[in-house]
Each structure stands twice: as structure tokens, then as C-alpha cells.
Amino acid sequence: PNHSNFQFDTSFMYIICMLSMIKIYQTRHPDINANAYLVFGVLAFIIILGLTGIMYEGPILFILFTCLHLIMIFWLSAQIYYMGRWKLDKKTPKRFLNHLMTAPNPCRPKYPNRMVLLSIGILINLGLAISHWIIKFGNFGNYLLILFMVNLILYLSFYIVMKLISKEKLHFWPLLYILLAMIFWSASLYFYMHKSSSWTLSAAESRTYNTPCTFMDFYDNHDFWHFL
């Protein structure tokens, strides 16, 4: 285990999480297509950010990243709340003030159910940022992976709950896939937590984590984490 192979496989997990979120969004909004150049540009930025965070981890980088993280969460929440019709430009403050002055009840959300769910997501992300500052979720790469996985689960849960609120029928096959996904995610998390090596330590120190191979006398717990 070393910095190089950690970056190699973790980068794929970042990409899988982000592409899964984009796929969910496009499935629910077939009339909206993601810009391929923008998507790949963001993916490249995330991989570089993850590498920088591991190689030069410190409080300044974490503060800057947390600010960027929370700004993006608020911006994406606004996009989801207004279903892609919200734009941030120089006229935004004017539109906001006009709404406060003309709306009969400006503090009442237009989409209350959506507002509640998105507020929960924002609070969870804020809680993760505070928790990492206090207790540390390992290294920066682990923290970034946790953010992606948690937000993927939140985004999937958001659409499931919205379907139930809208009284849309949940069919058998989607329910089966959701159940299987929960089983595999839970199992993969178990294998991820029970690691048999550590890339942050030297080879000799990492061997103290070694355990007998789990399957076919070849695959260990970390392999099962990737398989699942």
C-alpha cells in the first residue's frame, strides 16, 4: 500500500459516485442533458483536490475546502429546489428583494416538502464538516469519499421520498434493486471498516493489519469492499 495505488482506486470511487448522481438526475429529468466538458472538468478538479488534500493536508486547506463544499451544497440545493430554473447572476439580489416586497407570505416556501428534505441534507453536510474538524475521519481522501457516498445516498433517498409524497407507484423491480443495493452497501461498509492493510504506514507497519485471505485464499477484505 502506498500513496499511488490509494489514489488510483479511490479516484474511481469518486467518479462512480458523481456519475451515479448525474444518472439519477438525468433519469428524473430526461429533457436536461449534462455538459460533458463540464462534468469531466469537475471530475478532474475533484481528483486533483483529493490528491492535494492527502499530500498537503492542513487546517488552511480544510477551511478552504469546507467553504467550497458548503457553497456548492447551497447552490445545488437551490438548483434542485427550483428544478434547474434558478440562476445566480447580478440580478439575483433584485429578484430576491422584489419577491420579499410583493409576495403575500415571502417566508413561506413554495415547495415545503422539497424544502424540508433539502434542509435535512444541508444540515447533514454541515454536521459532517464539523465532525471531521473535531474527530477526523481519517485522512482527507477518506473524508472526501465519505462526502460523496453520503450525498449519493441522500440524493437517492430524496427522489424516493418525493415519489412517495407525490403518490407515485413504486414497482417491484426498483424496490428489489433498492433492497439489494442496501444489502451490498452495508456489507461493503463492513469490509471497508475491517481493513487488512494501511497505505498511510510503512510496509512493515501495514503488515500488522494483515489477516488470512477471506475468499479462495487470495482475496482479502479490501477486495470485497471493491467487489461489493
UniProtKB/TrEMBL annotation:
Ranges that cross the membrane: 6-25, 37-56, 62-84, 115-135, 141-162, 174-193
Keyword check for Amino-acid biosynthesis: no
Keyword set includes Transmembrane: yes
Topology of this chain in the membrane: Multi-pass membrane protein
Keywords for the protein's UniProt record, in alphabetical order: Glycoprotein, Membrane, Signal, Transmembrane, Transmembrane helix
Gene Ontology cellular component terms for the protein in this record: lysosome; plasma membrane
Alphabetized GO MF terms: double-stranded RNA binding; RNA transmembrane transporter activity
Classification via Pfam families: SID-1_RNA_chan
Location(s) in or outside the cell: Membrane
Family statement drawn from the similarity comment of this UniProt entry: Belongs to the SID1 family.
Name the UniProt record assigns to this protein: SID1-like protein
Organism of this sequence: Sitobion avenae
